[in-house]
Every structure is written in C-alpha cells, then in structure tokens.
Amino acid sequence: MSTVHTDIVTPAGKVYEGDVHMVCVRSKDGELGILPNHLPIVAPLEIALVRLKHEDEKIVDYVAVHGGFIQVSRKSITILSEAAELKADIDVARAEKAKAEAEEQLNTLHETSEGYEEAHLKLKRSELRLSTAAIDDSIPEA
Ligand code: ATP
C-alpha cells in the first residue's frame, strides 16, 4: 500500500500533517475518497468531517473541516480552510454553547433576514464539532 502526504492548513496554522492511505472528504459535488496518485484536482468542500485513513485502514484520524478547498496533486494533498479541528481538540462545551446561540438566533430570524445565513453556518459548524467529538474511535471502521 502506498501513502500520500496530506496537510490541513488554516489561518491559525497547520492542523494536520501525515502520510495517509486515503483521504475522505465531502466536496460540493459529493463524497470523495482520494488515494495516492490520484488525478490532480481542486474542489470546494462542504462543512463536513474529513477522515484520514492510515495504511492498515484501522487507524483513522478525524478532523472537522469547515468548508474551504482540497487540492490534490500526484505527490500531495492540501486542504485549506478558514477553520478545522482535530477530534481531540474540539471543545464540546464551547460547541454546545455556539449551537444554542445559533438556534436562538435562527428562532428569531426569517430565512430572508440579515444574519440568517451566518447563524445557519454557525449552527452547521457547531453540529459538525459535536458529531466529530462524539465519534467512538475505539471501534475500527468497517
Ligand atoms: P464560537 O461561537 O464558539 O466562536 P464559531 O463557529 O463562531 O464558534 P469559528 O469562527 O468557526 O467559531 O472559529 C474560530 C476559531 O475557533 C477557529 O480557529 C476554530 O478552529 C476555533 N473553534 C471554534 N469553536 C471551537 C470548538 N468548539 N473547539 C475547538 N476550537 C474551536
């Protein structure tokens, strides 16, 4: 099995760096599972979980990635995003608070109101943080 060097970079710095066997992301066009020596692409990403599978496929790193882009070349993969967190670095209490705030804002806003889209995105980010933090990584992926 071969590997591909993968970085996840945000304005706050490099969140992830590793040589992995497969990178699974949700692009705007759907799920992508990228293996080494993949055709070069650039694709916009959804606010979604990124799974980085290691060579034996049992070890998987989980990163909450809040949109951005993936760039794939023959030699490396780079994910660039405004924000991303490793599962272990997610502050669950903060995400719960952000979720409650976003829900409260959405309750008072109409879909066409100023601030609705922003509150909706905040809700999506907090939900992704909570679902990522809740992954049980003691059970190997099938
Ligand atoms: P909050 O209201 O809690 O700030 P947010 O979704 O508005 O949430 P962002 O603007 O997406 O926050 O992120 C700002 C910075 O804080 C980023 O660097 C992001 O990685 C980090 N961050 C936000 N929420 C969390 C969290 N729950 N755990 C760890 N890091 C977080």
UniProtKB/TrEMBL annotation:
Q: Where in the cell is it found?
A: Cell membrane; Endomembrane system
Tell me the GO molecular function terms. ATP binding; hydrolase activity; proton-transporting ATP synthase activity, rotational mechanism
Pfam families, A to Z: ATP-synt_DE (PF00401), ATP-synt_DE_N (PF02823)
Give the matching SUPFAM superfamilies: Epsilon subunit of F1F0-ATP synthase N-terminal domain
Which keywords annotate this record? Answer: ATP synthesis, Cell membrane, CF(1), Coiled coil, Hydrogen ion transport, Hydrolase, Ion transport, Membrane, Transport
Q: How does it sit in the membrane?
A: Peripheral membrane protein
Q: Which Gene3D superfamilies match?
A: ATP synthase delta/epsilon subunit, C-terminal domain, F0F1 ATP synthase delta/epsilon subunit, N-terminal
**Record-annotated ATP synthase F1 complex delta/epsilon subunit N-terminal domain positions:** 5-84
User: Has UniProt tagged this entry with the keyword Transport?
Assistant: yes
Q: Which family does it belong to?
A: Belongs to the ATPase epsilon chain family.
Task: List the residue ranges forming a coiled coil, or say none.
Answer: 83-119
Subunit text: F-type ATPases have 2 components, CF(1) - the catalytic core - and CF(0) - the membrane proton channel. CF(1) has five subunits: alpha(3), beta(3), gamma(1), delta(1), epsilon(1). CF(0) has three main subunits: a, b and c.
Q: What does this protein do?
A: Produces ATP from ADP in the presence of a proton gradient across the membrane.
Q: Where is the ATP synthase epsilon subunit C-terminal domain?
A: 89-133
Protein transport among keywords? no
State what protein this is by name. Answer: ATP synthase epsilon chain
Q: Which organism is it from?
A: Sporolactobacillus inulinus
Q: Which GO terms describe its cellular component?
A: endomembrane system; plasma membrane; proton-transporting ATP synthase complex
